[in-house]
Amino acid sequence: MELYQKYHDLNLRLFTFSPADIQWKEQRIIGLTRMKGRWMERTFPFPHAVYNRSFNKKKITIRRLEQSIGRNKCFNTINYFNKWELHSLLKQSALHSLVPDTFLLNQENILELINKYRLVYVKPLYGSKGTSVHRVELKENGDIHISLHSLAPKYICRKEENIQKRIDDLFEREKYVVQQGIRMKPLNKHVFDIRVLVQKGRIGEWTVSAVTCRVAYEHYFNTSMCNAVRDFEKVAPQFLSPEETNKILHFLHEVSITAAQAAENRLGSLGEISVDFAIDEQSKLWIIELNGKPQKNIYNAPSCVKYKKLIHKKPLEYAYYLSQQENEKSADR
Question: 107, 160, 211, 327: most buried by Cβ count inside 10 Å?
Answer without folding.
Answer: 211
